[in-house]
Inverse folding.
């Protein structure tokens, strides 16, 4: 298609946007349901205008620091909640409430910026995780604003209204102002006109600042090369914080506008539908062109609103529409070859923990410690079914199977360098296919699980194809849209009723073994986890595993050796999808049922965060991350306490240890190994990176505690020893005079022989008592 378009970028964009606008109008007025009312198109226009502010915030932050901000709408949750409380519980005027809510959103952006500048030199992966965790934290903590003393008791309101489920139309200015568009019977009012004017003014201000001021030039320089921008005198941290503040303001305007148009509850909900439309539009605009992103957002919103009106029963298909838009948008874009896109994702957080040095493996203490750790782990795993309740045993089985999904991200993200938010979607594919094969087709569990695993691998490969064309974090929106599609469509009987199981799912049997009881199923779940760990560990030692690591670090060098990059990346997608599908296939039989809520988008977010905080570069990191999050989820159940530890604690941990928990464990282990090496007089260069190897070999290493009855320690307290020195004798004399004086001192008198102390041995030779 690029061959038939003009070379000028602006002309090409104008033609594409004009064609897209014409196609949208044709679909709305002539195709969808034989034509939708003009009022529906206007409603989509207003909704798209509000969503375009979110799109601008995403593009602006990506252009600045090359990270996709998943907290863009969450930045405004505090502001919209404040706006709702002021309007309903106080006598504060509308404009003042609006200004305060925007200031609150800007303050949230400021706080996020101050936290994020700590990660500027970290990987884009870590910073992306920070945005995801920040979004979850803000949404969960926002309801506590109602507890501030200057708000009256919110419980005085009706329950539905207190939850944000009622419109604010009658509490806005000019509540009696209404108008109709065409034959559409629903009236529009002040909120629609105000939102359109607000969006137009904000977009003009942002466009003018970026186009005609030095700040816009600085933002573009920051996007190209932060280090060089700093050398040119640009205050990079201050500029980044400023961009976050603007993003916070845009998020506040978006959520406040949504609250005015619909309900406050819809504005404060972290639904993927609110974010996906902006992500899709931003991807279509290559995360760079703000005007194109704004127009794309409006067109997508108009299409979605018209489709929802014409086909209300097929609303779940909108999620598939977003997935198709993202996939086609990535496939039709030209490959990016500039160095910015080549280097936009750093993988410092994906480092694998070093193995114990081979020279120390034979040390009895090290060998004994390893055996002790394995023994304690096996003892704890084996004793759980016999000392814990049935509910806890079932929970332990669930945790073991969810860990396999986390391990799948080790292959895809830690080794392959591709990030995904759709792992629970692949797990859902494996679960549904396996359940259908055992309940509907009648296959045995031991055949259904491998088939479901293979199907999940194929689906993961297909999903990953669009993201291979463009480097960076662009798989995140695609995988998010896939997980959203699976949650909304895959479990809908109208579309996949032929595949969903229609009767109870029975647990497997094997010869004389019956896994119907919780204890047997627990051991099967643990065996599945061990099998996944062994498979991934063996893969890491193969040529394919080594190529994945090398490909993550430098694609150009790997390609120069004749390695097929696309095939290798697709292999990572296939293996990752297979692991997730295998987990889902076993999990659906362990639960003996299937529900869409077990495979939602939020669960995919949680899996992604678990892998990062544990250490996405190793299987051990997956185990540590799962242990941390599952402990918070099931054992620390206090609401506010869990919010701080589960989300705020995650940010603190990533701030202190970008490599995750596994890096902390490795530091502690290496400290102990250094002590072992010193005690055994073994030089291990990998443990002493800052020391000279030759100096280590020459250094005397004590084998025991210092003795108090020998050497210098045996001398009386009032006696000390000093070495004879001729260094300063004869100062002020010529060289010949000093030489003659020294010669005379030797011939005229004999130097007294120092008294030997048998306790000092050779260490006291040549010393004299003082």
């Amino acid at each position: 298609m690029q061959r038939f378009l003009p070379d000028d970028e602006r002309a090409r964009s104008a033609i594409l946007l004009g064609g897209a606008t014409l196609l949208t109008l044709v679909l709305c007025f002539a195709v969808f349901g034989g034509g939708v009312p003009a009022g529906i198109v206007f409603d989509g226009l207003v909704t798209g205008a509000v969503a375009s502010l979110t799109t601008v915030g995403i593009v602006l932050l990506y252009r600045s620091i090359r990270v996709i901000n998943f907290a863009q709408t969450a930045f405004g949750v505090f502001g919209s909640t404040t706006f709702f409380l002021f309007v309903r519980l106080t006598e504060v005027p509308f404009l003042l409430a609006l200004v305060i809510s925007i200031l609150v959103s800007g303050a949230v952006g400021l706080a996020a910026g101050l936290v994020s500048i700590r990660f500027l030199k970290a990987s884009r992966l870590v910073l992306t995780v920070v945005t995801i965790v920040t979004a979850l934290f803000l949404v969960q903590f926002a309801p506590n604003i109602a507890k501030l003393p200057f708000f009256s008791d919110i419980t005085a309101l009706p329950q539905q209204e207190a939850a944000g489920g009622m419109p604010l139309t009658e509490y806005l200015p000019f509540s009696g102002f209404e108008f109709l568009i065409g034959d559409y019977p629903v009236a529009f009012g002040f909120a629609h006109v105000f939102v359109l004017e607000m969006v137009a003014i904000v977009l003009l201000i942002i466009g003018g600042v970026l186009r005609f001021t030095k700040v816009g030039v600085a933002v573009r320089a920051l996007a190209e090369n932060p280090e060089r921008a700093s050398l040119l005198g640009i205050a990079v941290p201050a500029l980044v914080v400023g961009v976050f503040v603007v993003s916070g303001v845009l998020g506040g305007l978006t959520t406040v506008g949504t609250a005015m148009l619909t309900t406050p509850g819809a504005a404060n909900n972290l639904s993927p539908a609110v974010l996906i439309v902006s992500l899709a539009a931003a991807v279509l605009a290559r995360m760079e062109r703000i005007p194109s992103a704004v127009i794309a957002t409006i067109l997508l919103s108009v299409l979605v609103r018209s489709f929802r009106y014409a086909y209300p029963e097929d609303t779940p298909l909108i999620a598939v529409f977003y997935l198709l838009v993202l996939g086609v948008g990535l496939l039709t874009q030209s490959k990016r070859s500039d160095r910015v896109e080549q280097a936009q994702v750093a993988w410092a957080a994906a480092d694998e923990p070093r193995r114990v040095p081979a020279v120390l493996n034979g040390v009895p203490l090290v060998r004994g410690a390893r055996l002790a750790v394995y023994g304690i782990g096996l003892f704890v795993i084996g004793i759980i079914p016999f000392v814990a309740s049935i509910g806890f045993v079932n929970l332990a089985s669930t945790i073991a199977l969810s860990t396999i999904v986390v391990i799948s991200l080790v292959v895809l993200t830690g080794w392959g360098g591709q990030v995904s938010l759709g792992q629970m979607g692949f797990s859902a594919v494996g679960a549904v296919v396996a359940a259908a094969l055992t309940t509907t087709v009648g296959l045995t569990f031991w055949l259904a699980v491998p088939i479901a695993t293979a199907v999940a691998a194929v689906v993961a490969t297909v999903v990953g194809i669009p993201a291979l064309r463009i480097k960076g974090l662009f798989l995140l929106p695609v995988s998010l849209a896939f997980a959203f599609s699976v949650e909304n469509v895959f479990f809908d009987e109208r579309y996949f009723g032929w595949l969903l199981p229609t009767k109870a799912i029975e647990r497997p049997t094997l010869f004389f073994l019956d896994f119907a009881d919780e204890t047997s199923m627990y051991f099967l779940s643990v065996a599945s986890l061990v099998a996944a760990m062994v498979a991934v560990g063996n893969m890491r030692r193969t040529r394919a595993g080594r190529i994945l690591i090398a490909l993550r670090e430098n694609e150009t060098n790997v390609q120069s050796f004749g390695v097929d990059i696309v095939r290798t990346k697709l292999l990572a997608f296939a293996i990752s999808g297979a692991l997730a599908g295998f987990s889902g296939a076993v999990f659906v039989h362990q639960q003996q049922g299937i529900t869409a809520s077990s495979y939602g988008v939020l669960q995919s977010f949680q899996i992604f965060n678990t892998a990062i905080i544990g250490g996405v570069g190793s299987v051990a990191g997956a185990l540590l991350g799962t242990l941390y999050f599952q402990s918070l989820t099931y054992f620390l159940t206090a609401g506010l306490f869990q919010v701080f530890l589960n989300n705020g604690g995650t940010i603190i941990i990533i701030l202190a240890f970008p490599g995750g928990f596994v890096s902390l464990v490795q530091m502690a282990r290496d400290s102990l190994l250094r002590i072992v090496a010193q005690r055994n007089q073994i030089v291990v260069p990998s443990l002493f990176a800052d020391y000279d190897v030759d100096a280590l070999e020459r250094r005397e290493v004590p084998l025991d505690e210092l003795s108090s009855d020998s050497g210098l320690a045996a001398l009386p307290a009032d006696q000390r020893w000093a070495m004879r020195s001729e260094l300063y004798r004869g100062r002020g004399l010529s060289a010949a005079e000093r030489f003659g004086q020294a010669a005379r001192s030797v011939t005229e008198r004999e130097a007294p022989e120092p008294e030997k102390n048998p306790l000092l041995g050779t260490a006291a030779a040549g010393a004299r008592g003082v």
